[in-house]
Hints:
Elements: H1 2-42, E1 53-55, E2 61-64, H2 66-75, H3 87-99, H4 115-121, H5 127-140, H6 142-158, H7 162-174, H8 179-199, H9 205-212, H10 218-228, H11 233-255, H12 260-269, H13 271-283, H14 294-302
Antiparallel strand pairs: 1-2
Helix pairs in contact: 4-14, 5-6, 5-12, 6-7, 6-10, 6-11, 6-13, 8-10, 11-12, 11-13
Amino acid sequence: xxxxxxxxxxxxxxxxxxxxxxxxxxxxxxxxxxxxxxxxxxxxxxxxxxxxxxxxxxxxxxxxxxxxxxxxxxxxxxxxxxxxxxxxxxxxxxxxxxxxxxxxxxxxxxxxxxxxxxxxxxxxxxxxxxxxxxxxxxxxxxxxxxxxxxxxxxxxxxxxxxxxxxxxxxxxxxxxxxxxxxxxxxxxxxxxxxxxxxxxxxxxxxxxxxxxxxxxxxxxxxxxxxxxxxxxxxxxxxxxxxxxxxxxxxxxxxxxxxxxxxxxxxxxxxxxxxxxxxxxxxxxxxxxxxxxxxxxxxxxxxxxxxxxxxxxx
Length: 313
């Protein structure tokens, strides 16, 4: 009997030890699994950024400024986006693209700047001759002069020099070789100012316009409005020359006529001329004004008596 009792006690002790070992092993496994799961969930996250110590919005020194860091990161462009624009730059680009689009309603499609007479006279007959004619108008004629007036009007308006702005506006209005050319630039300038005041008015614009005290031609109008909106001069100049060239090509395309592809080829070929002329105009003084595109000036004068006309100049 004693032997039986000893055997039972031995079996009980063995079972107890086995159960304890199993329970301990199970507990260890569960604990290990529970610990591993959070580790797996965080391995793909970037390492935490060190917190900066500073002054909280309440002014308590030494407290955490995590909320301020979040605001700064939201306002800053992504580090990899090197071409990101600020809000002001985006607004300036939007306005330039609108104002100096050939579709902006200043009536530019109604004028050819004498190109219509040049086509009838045979001076312009194809894409090549149109490109040569426009290159002369840009570099040595009204294109360069308009760029100089735009630059000086922009600077005078930006510095609130009303006397200089009035003199520039008066000189630009008189600096045209024909009656139709004067009608063209003054009507576009008036339309540009009227639309800007109606849809894009801003502080100071009315004062700048009043300072001119007379007709405002197209390049002066562009210089004043862009200055009032704090748009830099250089991009304004290049956008102005682009729309001026595009309008001239559009007139030539309808008169010769030219297809869309040839028109774009002419625009592409004139790119270096536009860039060089814009650079010269930005650096020029009023004493540098002058035109040597005599044939284009004559074309503007003779268009007044042309028998059949599609354009107003």
